[in-house]
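To: structure desk
From: M.T.
Subject: fold request, one chain
Message: Could you run this one when you get a chance? Sequence is below, nothing fancy, just the single chain.
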Amino acid sequence: MSASTLPIQPSPPSPTPQQTAEARAAFTASLLSTGTSTVQSDLQNRAADLHANSAAIDKQEQALLKETKNLGKESDKWQKVVDEGARGVKETGDVQNWAELLERDLCVLEDTMAMVDEEHGNVDKSVDGNLANGRP
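Reply: Done. Structure tokens follow.
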């Protein structure tokens, strides 16, 4: 069969304007319902996720507040330890200062006693109790 011998098939009847409008409306409604349900489903899922995440964030916020209070208490404890250490260092400094003043006063007394001994001719003994000429 050649192309010229093929039977000619009748073309389908063309739709009426009313049929075209009805088909277009049905197609648009189908697209809208499919799109709307998908979009609506996505939005509902996102809203559910937001609510779940909000609850988790609230829980984390409460835990963070609790830990912050605990950290504040611990910080106060450490501050007391530091204050006690500083007080101890100050007292040690005060004791050292007192010892230096005492040593200075003893040196003054020693020098005074040495001058008194020189005036009285008692230069036999040195400060540590040994004789001045080096003999015990």
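Reply (cont.): The chain is about 75% helix and 0% strand. Let me know if you need anything else for the meeting.
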